[in-house]
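Technical note accompanying the year-one report. For the benefit of new consortium partners, we illustrate the data format agreed upon in the data management plan: each record pairs a sequence with a structure-token string. No post-processing was applied to the example shown here.
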Amino acid sequence: MSTLALKGPYWVTARQHRRALWWSLGLATVAVAVLVASRMWSDGAVDALRAAGCTADGVDASCFQTQRDYVDDRWFARHLVEYTAMGMFALPVLLGAFVAGPMLARELESGTYRLAWTQSVSPARWLAAKLSAPAALTLAVVPLLSLVFHWSWSTGPADDFPTYWYEPTMFVSFGIVPVAHALLGLALGTAVGVLTRRTVVAMGVAALVIGAALAVLSRLRDDLWPVRTLTGTGLSAENHAWPLERGMLTASGERVLWKDCFAAQPDTFQRCMTDRGGVTEFLDIHPTSHYWPLQLVETGICLALAVLAALIAFRVLRARLP
């Protein structure tokens, strides 16, 4: 056996859960295939339009059907990207609820962990082996998915039918956040599996806990980095910027929010803001230059929470089990 081969509890873990690992690889392969197909479908629509000598916004009646086919194909390609983004958004829940959580809870529930512990394998080493197998797969596969997603999204149908970087499913589908979310899902699933020690319960609780964590992160994302405030008249967000709060500033600098006036007086919300003392408009945005700061801050939070969850799992395992 070479030094690069798996040994001891790591080999046993990979052997025991090889079916789940292969299924994970298979699903990742399908996701990559869908993204490549989206890009090829999009490129094919562009080539067909050019071959017919037509343009997307032309008025030539002879190009009507070609233009319609082009729009339909580009929309279909965009939907493929969106569906994959939904899968990337749900990936941490799937990893925690269907891999890490039940993988541990099943052995703790059945008592098979005792066999490993009688083979000179400490509880900490046993848990490390159980966690390292899916973590290694995550670190190998998720960055590849992130790169392929960005390639398919940034150069494909998003040009004509934009899906913006700040949308909840898009933000977590490329960059470094997908990896951090996946590791957080694994760590939370591991902690839940050790705490519950029941397979079905671990799956349900892990899904709820990870889903709640992702929802909170999504809700707080716009506050992870200072916003840029624009003032003046006729304000609009910069190209591909993330628009946030809008309204008017009073002479003292207080804010009169557009959403508050629209809720109170939907037909005369502009007059509502001026009646409340608004003198100039304001617009809070995250420009595209804030993409990486937001990614880095959220990644740091996820990794810190993942480390905390893993430490809790190791502590509970040592304290509660013989």
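Partners are asked to follow this layout when depositing records. The CA atoms of residues 247 and 257 lie 4 Å apart.
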